[in-house]
C-alpha cells in the first residue's frame, strides 16, 4: 500500500533528473508511468477485505509510528484521485506549453500528498501531507509567474498558513489530552475528555480545514487565484485538492467522534455555515464577468452544500454527500477544462467574448452546455440525482427549512449558467476578423472533456451501481 505514495514521489524525482534527456518523449513517458500507477491502484484496491489493509512504516510502536490504513471508504477517494489526475495529465500533454516538466513533477508530488491524506491513520502525518499538498498547490498556482496572480497566491499562502496552524493546534491539544497521535486510539481515549475540550478540537479543525476549502468568509483567496492560474490547476484544485481536504476533515471527525460527530448545537452552526457559504457564493458568481471567477465561486457554493450535508452525520447524509463530491469533481473539472479549450480559440475568459461560440465551435460548447445543466442540478444529469439525495437526507433529519435553501441555490445557479449559455448561442458579426481560423483542436483535449462530460450523463441516467458502492462504504463505516 505504501507504493501508492512512494511511486509518484519516485517518479517526480526521476523526471526531475532526466527531464532534459527525455525532453522529446516527456509526454509519452509521463503518461506511461502513470498508466503503471493505475495498475498498482487496481492491484491494491482489489485485495481489500472488510477490515481494510494496514501498513506500518519502520519499527516504531503503534502509538507513535506512521500507520497507513486503507478501507472501503478510502478506495472511493483513491480511484477518484488516480483517474482524474490521469485525465488531467493527458489534457496537460497538449495544453501546457511552458514549464511542462515542472508541471508534471508537481502533479506527481501532489498525487503522493493527496494519497497520503487519504491513507494516513495518524494525526500528525495527516498534517504533514496536508501541508505538502498546500505547498504544491501554491507552486502550481504560481508556476506561470504571472504578475497579476501575485496577490491571489499571496492570499492563498497567508490563509493556508493560518489554517494549517489551527489544524496543528488541534493536533497538539488532542495529543496533550490523549497521549497518542493514532486516530483509532484517540477515538477511544477522547471519550474521557470533557465536552468543552472536544468542542474546541472540532472548532479548530473546522476553521483550519474550512480556510483550505474556502468556506465563506475564508474564501477570498480562491477566486483571485483561479482567475490568473492555469485552468489545469483550477481543475486539479476544485476537483481533487479541495475535495480531498474536505474528505480528510470528515474522516478525522468520524474517526475521533463517531458518526454523529457534531452535537445538536454545533450541527446547526455548521449547517448554517454551509447554507451561508453556498448562498453568498451563488450571489457573487452571478456578478462575475470572468468565466474562471464565476466557476471559482460556483466551486465555493458546492463546498457549502457538501459541508452542510456531511454535518448531518446520518447514513443518508453521508451517501448523498459522497455522491455529490464525486459528481462535482467530474462536473467542475469538465467545465474548467472546456473553458481552457474555448479560451485557446478566442484568447479571452470574459463571458462577453464568448458570444456566438455555439455556432462557431458547436461540439465543445455543446459539452459545456450539458455540464452546465448538470451542475445546476437538472435531469437527466448526475447533479440532479445528488441534489435530490441531499434534499431527502436533510428532510429526513428534520430540517425542512434548510432543504428549501438548496432549491434557492439551484435557482441562483440556473440564472448565471443560463446567462453563459445565452451568450454562447447568440450570433456574432465579424467572425473571420476576430477568430483564429487556423486553430486546430487537439484530439487529446476533446477526448478528456468528452469522457468527463459523458460520465456526468451516465451517472445521471444510471446512478445505481455507484450509489450501491457508496452505500456499502457507508455501511462499513457504520454511518
UniProtKB/TrEMBL annotation:
<dbReference type="GO" id="GO:0042773">
    <property type="term" value="P:ATP synthesis coupled electron transport"/>
</dbReference>
<comment type="similarity">
    <text>Belongs to the CPA3 antiporters (TC 2.A.63) subunit D family.</text>
</comment>
<feature type="transmembrane region" description="Helical">
    <location>
        <begin position="445"/>
        <end position="462"/>
    </location>
</feature>
<feature type="transmembrane region" description="Helical">
    <location>
        <begin position="365"/>
        <end position="385"/>
    </location>
</feature>
<feature type="transmembrane region" description="Helical">
    <location>
        <begin position="156"/>
        <end position="175"/>
    </location>
</feature>
<feature type="transmembrane region" description="Helical">
    <location>
        <begin position="6"/>
        <end position="22"/>
    </location>
</feature>
<dbReference type="GO" id="GO:0008137">
    <property type="term" value="F:NADH dehydrogenase (ubiquinone) activity"/>
</dbReference>
<feature type="transmembrane region" description="Helical">
    <location>
        <begin position="199"/>
        <end position="221"/>
    </location>
</feature>
<dbReference type="InterPro" id="IPR001750">
    <property type="entry name" value="ND/Mrp_TM"/>
</dbReference>
<feature type="transmembrane region" description="Helical">
    <location>
        <begin position="325"/>
        <end position="344"/>
    </location>
</feature>
<protein>
    <submittedName>
        <fullName>Proton-translocating NADH-quinone oxidoreductase chain N</fullName>
    </submittedName>
</protein>
<feature type="transmembrane region" description="Helical">
    <location>
        <begin position="126"/>
        <end position="144"/>
    </location>
</feature>
<feature type="transmembrane region" description="Helical">
    <location>
        <begin position="68"/>
        <end position="91"/>
    </location>
</feature>
<keyword id="KW-0812">Transmembrane</keyword>
<keyword id="KW-1003">Cell membrane</keyword>
<dbReference type="GO" id="GO:0005886">
    <property type="term" value="C:plasma membrane"/>
</dbReference>
<feature type="transmembrane region" description="Helical">
    <location>
        <begin position="29"/>
        <end position="48"/>
    </location>
</feature>
<keyword id="KW-0472">Membrane</keyword>
<dbReference type="Pfam" id="PF00361">
    <property type="entry name" value="Proton_antipo_M"/>
</dbReference>
<feature type="transmembrane region" description="Helical">
    <location>
        <begin position="397"/>
        <end position="418"/>
    </location>
</feature>
<feature type="domain" description="NADH:quinone oxidoreductase/Mrp antiporter transmembrane">
    <location>
        <begin position="122"/>
        <end position="412"/>
    </location>
</feature>
<feature type="transmembrane region" description="Helical">
    <location>
        <begin position="103"/>
        <end position="120"/>
    </location>
</feature>
<keyword id="KW-1133">Transmembrane helix</keyword>
<feature type="transmembrane region" description="Helical">
    <location>
        <begin position="266"/>
        <end position="285"/>
    </location>
</feature>
<dbReference type="InterPro" id="IPR003918">
    <property type="entry name" value="NADH_UbQ_OxRdtase"/>
</dbReference>
<feature type="transmembrane region" description="Helical">
    <location>
        <begin position="233"/>
        <end position="254"/>
    </location>
</feature>
<dbReference type="InterPro" id="IPR050586">
    <property type="entry name" value="CPA3_Na-H_Antiporter_D"/>
</dbReference>
<feature type="transmembrane region" description="Helical">
    <location>
        <begin position="294"/>
        <end position="313"/>
    </location>
</feature>
